[in-house]
Structure prediction request, 75 residues.
Amino acid sequence: MSKAVLCIKNQGYEASLEKWKVYPVLGEEHGLLKVVDESGEAYLYPKELFLLLEVPAHVLQDMERDFLQSLGKRS
Prediction:
């Protein structure tokens, strides 16, 4: 199983994170979660903004691919 998070709060990060959207977790540093946000870049965010989810690795790979493709369509 791989990790993903559901954004449950985005106060202060409204331009970077969409509330109720699922993001893949790339890592964790100093109590912060590293996720690819709406800019398409990976940044660290406080854990309390998210609910941790466990998803099968193949689903997470598909999710990451689709998310990055959706960012490309907005440009």
Observations:
- The chain has a mean pLDDT of 86.
- Strands lie at 2-7, 22-29, 32-36, 42-46, 50-55.
- Helices lie at 57-74.
- The chain has one domain: 2-74.
